[in-house]
Each structure stands twice: as C-alpha cells, then as structure tokens.
Amino acid sequence: MAKVDLSKMSTEERELHYLKLASLRSKRNEKISTALLVTPYILLFTTFIVVPIIVAWGLSLTHFDLIQAPKLTEPFGMFNYVMLITQDENFLKYVIPNTIKFAIIVGPGGYILSFVMAWMLSQIQAGPRKIISLALYTPSMVGGVFISVVWRTVFSGDVDGYLNAILLNSGMIDEAIQFLQSPDYLLNIMIFVSLWSSMGIGFLAMLAGLLNVDKTLYEAALVDGIKNRFQEIIYITIPQMKPQMLFGAVMAIVGAFNAGYIGVALSGANPTPQYSGQLIINHIDDFGFIRYEMGYAAAISVILLFVIAGFSTVAYALFGEKE
Amino acid sequence: MAIKAMNVNPKQFDKTQIKFYLILVPMAIFMLLPVVYIFSQAFKPLDELFMFPPRFLVQKPTFENFTRLFRAASGTGVPMARYLFNSIWITVLTIFSTIIITTATGYALSKKEFRLKKFMFKVNQTALMFVAVAVAIPRYLIVDGLGMTDSAWVHFIPYLAMPVGLFLVKQFIDQVPDELIEAAKIDGANDRHILFKIIIPLIKPALATVAILTFQFIWNSTESSNIYIITETKKTFAFYLTTLSSQAAVSIAGAGMAAAAGLIMFIPNLVIFIVMQSNVMDTMSHSGIK
Fold first, then answer.
1. Secondary structure element (H or E) that encloses residue A71, with its range
2. Do A208 and B287 touch (CB under 8 A)?
C-alpha cells in the first residue's frame, strides 16, 4: 500500500483509512485462521495417502530390495509390469481370476444384499428394526481375531470342525474335508465369510436414506401408474436416495478390497494353498514383505489401485449426479 | 395387479409386515450365530472343548479360559496388562486427535471461503475409496524415512487423516445454519471459540460416529505393531491376542483361550456401538455423496 501522510488528512479521511486497515487486518487474520484449521489434515493426508501413492508408482518402475538403492529398470522402467503380465504365472492364472470373482461377489453382491435388507428393515416398526439392524451390523465390527477364531473352527479339517462333524454325523460324507486347505473350497469360504461381515457403515447409510424418502412420493407414484414393487424401487426409491446409494457403493468396494487378508487368516499361510485363495493384496504382501522385491510389489499395488478406481468409476456413473 | 404404496417406517404392526419378518429374523439369527458360538466357546471347560461331536452351547460355563489367557505371557515375558495399557492410550489419543483434526478441517470446508476448497473436497471424496493396505510398502518406507520406526507415534500418526470421517463431519456441519456463526462473529468470537463452543456441541452425532469408526479401526488393528514396531513392550493388545490365538488355535485346548481373546476384542466394539447407535443413524442420513 502506498504511504499515506495522516497529518494531511481530514478527520473523516483518517477514520476511513483506519477502517480500511482494520478490515485488511481482519481479512489477513481470517486467512491465517483458515490455514491453521486445514493444515494438520492436509499435512497428514499428503504424507500418508498422497505420497504413498506417488512413491508406489515411482518404485514400480525400479528394482528395489530395501538394501541397495532403487534402480530404474529397462525398458523405460516397465520391466516389472512386463514381467507381471507375461511371466508371473501365478498372477495370471490364480490371483487375477480369484480377485475378480471375489470382488464381484463380495462388492456388488454384498451391496445388493445390504440394500435388500435395508429395504425390508425400512418397512417394519422402529423397535424391531433397531434390534435386527444391530444384528446385521455386528459381524462387520468383530475384527480379525474373532473372524479367524470362529471361522477356522467351523471349517476346520480336524474332528473338532463343526461343519465336518455335522456332515459326518448326518452321513453325507465319509471322511473329514480339509476345507481351508483345499483349493476347491477356500475361495468360496472366503466369499461366504466376507459376505457375512459386509453389512457395515454403507448398509446403515442406505437404511437411513430409505427412511428419509418422502412418503407422499410413493402415493403420488401409485396415481401415476406404478404397477409393482420393482418399478417402485427403480423409479422412486433409488433415485430419491442416490447420494446414499453412492456412499454405500463406495464403502462396499473398499470393504471388498480390504477383506483381502481373510484367505491368509483362514488358511494360515501366504501364499494360500496352491494359490487357491490368493488375492492381489496377498500377492503384494508375498512379494513385498516376504520376498523383499519391493519394486515388483509396488507394480502390483499400482494395478490394484487402478482396479479399485475402475470399480468406483462404475459406481459414480450409476449413482453420481450428472453435472 | 394393483399394489399399496410402500409403507415406510410404519407406526403399527400389520400383516403385510409378516413376510419381511420371515426373512429378516432368520437372517439376523444366522448373522449372530458366530457371536453366540464365541461366547459359548470362551466359557467352555476343557472337557467340553474336547468333546466329540462338538456341542454348540456351553454346558458348565467357567472362567478357566480367561484366567489361562491372562496368565499366559508373550515369549519375551511381557505381561498382558502392558499390551492392554498400550492399546487403551493409543485408542483414546487417536479418537481425540482425529475428532479435533477432522472437525477443524470440516468446519473450514463447510463454512469458509478459500482457494482450492472445492478441489480439496473432491480429492477427499476420491480418497474415500483409498485402500491403505494397497500401499503398505511405500507407507512403510515413509514411516521409516521419517524416523518413526519403533516409536510409539506410528501407532496413530499414519491413521489420523481419515477421509470417511472428514466427509461425514463436513456433511453434518453443512446443516449448521450460517447465521449462528455470523452472530457469534459479531459478538467477537474467533474460530477457536466457534469450533469448540458452537460447532462441536451441535455435531455430536457425527463426532460419535467418527469416534466409533476410529475405535473399530484402531482397537482391532495389528498393522502398526506388525510392521513398524520392533520393541515388544510397545506393541498392542490386538497384536498380542492375534499372535497368541494363532499359536493357540492349533491345539484344541488353545481354542478356548483363542475364543476368550476374540471375545475380549469384540465386547468393547459392541458396547460402544449399542450406546451410540442412534447418533450413528442420525449421521448416516447426511452421508450421501452428491
């Protein structure tokens, strides 16, 4: 600001000048204050979410074993990716098909299950609804120890395995099946257990959304010629709660990919027996933390991030609001 | 065929609801069976654990498994109380810090004007789909680079930025009327006052939800102890119980102990959620992504 000579001003001019200064100062204070509010989050977000993604991409172009400095690979840093899609037989033969099957059933499958349950719950009285929704939500908060303890005993191949005991007693099988070590069963058991614990926060969001739909819309729709429940859901319910549907979808996707540890927890080994329950997440751990091939593991991470982004894009295309 | 309009949130019972109960009640029972099972298993005495064919419900409940669990110490002789103490302070500190950080940022995103505000919200919304395990390796390198390996800080610093939490809190602060904040400003309140005296009391349901989500994550998490911590005395309860139960679950006698461990991990989650259930539902009605 240009220098001003206060002595040459009239009283009014001087007052105006002071007011301007005060407003400038308060604007600056406001800016500083806002910056203070957002800085901690931005710093943490950048350090532990943004930078890791960038580093993953950078490492994926290199050879890196934690001991020697990362070395850029030939050609053009694409070596790891080329290996991944041409040489890694386990990745192509087991990891990718397993992950696709698991993600599609647990993600969209769990999501539809959550919606149907929430839809029914919204049509019963508040008291029973609270209790039943608590029961459905409970498995999503039990944690890893619980999951491995309970489900390992249920599916255990020893005589103390519940399922085996039931099947043996009823005469349906003659000898115990090694459910958790058998390539025929492991992936399906993982899907079953993940679906069991899939009704989490997204489910609660959809339930809240359903309860908030304006009742008069349903009556108006009847007048307009809605013929059955299915039409009602498609034309009234879902469009009215699109934002919650989208939130639920994103949570379902994240949940499905986070559940990846489950195969290792159930079978007690990474890689899982004959790679039957190996998902991308386990493959990353296998190469990163067991074989210390960090560059290669990072390349798998990058692929995984793209897969998740792909799923989310579909969710946004379905339920996002078009601008 | 003509139908009646969907009856949302009915006040009274009528027979059209029977079909829903016929599906929902068996489903709820099925979902809870494992919970009943772990309760029963945790209280079974040794001879019942060995019984064949195994019985679902406990006959003569006992605290045997719990006392054995408490008496067992880690291979290096660290007592269980030490792990429990670590977990408690880590959980409390994480919940507290997450709430302060997300509320401050949510307030700025909702009520302030600044450059990059829209961009920041979009980035955070994209980060809702962030799966931390996918970048465990670069995270490990960053933590190591910051010199935090084996320091108590790694138990919570990497987990404080929580996109879902910020998202829910911001949506909830949007419901607070601007006039309220303007009036406080005229009375001379600064941002700190507004945050602690107006925003936080008004958005308690959202904060309760963030607290629950943080609790569920941190209390059950073994990642930091597994990857970042070397010193045994700095590890967490969840980690201790996981190691213990994965060794114990191999033997039948250990199965009761493992069940007791699973139950101890699970009970706090359940209690906190039940206490705060209505707050969570309140928050969820503002959870939509537009």
1. strand A71-72
2. yes
